[in-house]
Amino acid sequence: MTSKRIFVLNGHPAATSLTRTMAQTYAAAAQKAGHEVRITHLHDIDFDMDYGFAGYAQHKPLEPCLEAVQVDIEWAEHVVLTTPMWWGGLPAKLKGLIDRVFLPGWAFDTRKQTLGMPQPMLKGRSARAIVLSDTPGIFFSLFYRNALLRQIKGQIFRFVGFKPVKISHFAPAGNASPEKADKWIGKVEAIAREGA
User: Fold this and answer.
1) For helices 64-75 and 92-101, angle between their N-to-C axes, nearest 10 degrees
2) Which of 110, 95, 93, 99 lies closest to 60, judged by CA?
C-alpha cells in the first residue's frame, strides 16, 4: 500500500459529536497505517461565514484559518470530509467555509470553460465524504434522491476536480446504539487504513 497525504476536515460545528469521533477515528487509523495526516475541526476555527458579495468581482480577504485550510487541501492527495446532514443540507458554518475557501482562481477557473462549466483547478486529488443523518437510508434514497450526497460529490468535490469521490453514509445516527456506532467506526477504520 502506498502512503498518502490525507487532510481530514470535521465539518460538525459542535465541540463533541459522533461526526467528530468519525473524523478522529479516520485520522488515527490512517496515521497508524502509515499515512501522513492533517486534521481540522470546524468548531476550532473562527471566520466570517458570509462571503458578502454578489459574484466574485470584489474580493474578501481570507482569515488565516481559511488560508490554512487551503494550504492543507493543496498539500493533500486525499481529502476526507465528515459532516452531519441538517435540514437536508450541510451545517451553515461548513457551507460558509466552502463558500469562502473554494474560490475562483484557486478552486476553479471561470476564464476557461467547457460547455459553460469552469475548469477545475484541484485535480490530482481524491475525496471521501462521511455523512451522518437521522434520515434512514431508504427514505434518503427514495424520497430525497440522495440530494446531499449528490451535492457533495458532484457540485462540490467533482466540480473543482477531485476524482474519484466516494461517500460513506451512516443512518439513522441520532439515536444510534453504542453497538451500531462501534460498527460504523470499524468501517471507517478499515477505509482509513487503505487511505480511501
Assistant:
1) 70
2) 99
| Distance between CA atoms of residues 1 and 98, nearest Å | 31
User: For residue 88, what are the domain limits?
Assistant: 5-194
Q: How many domains does the chain have?
A: 1
pLDDT of residue 185: 97
Q: Burial, 97: exposed, middle or buried (Cβ in 10 Å; 0-12, 13-18, 19+)?
A: buried
**Confidence at residue 21, expressed as pLDDT on a 0 to 100 scale:** 97
Q: What is the pLDDT at residue 144?
A: 75
Domain with residue 103: its CATH number is 3.40.50.360
In this structure, the dihedral spanned by the alpha carbons of residues 141, 80, 52 and 113, taken in order and rounded to 10 degrees, is -80
Spatial contact of 45 and 9, defined as CB atoms under 8 Å apart: no
Task: Report which of 86, 87, 94 is spatially closest to residue 42, judged by C-alpha positions.
Answer: 94
Which grid coordinates are listed for 57?
Answer: 468581482
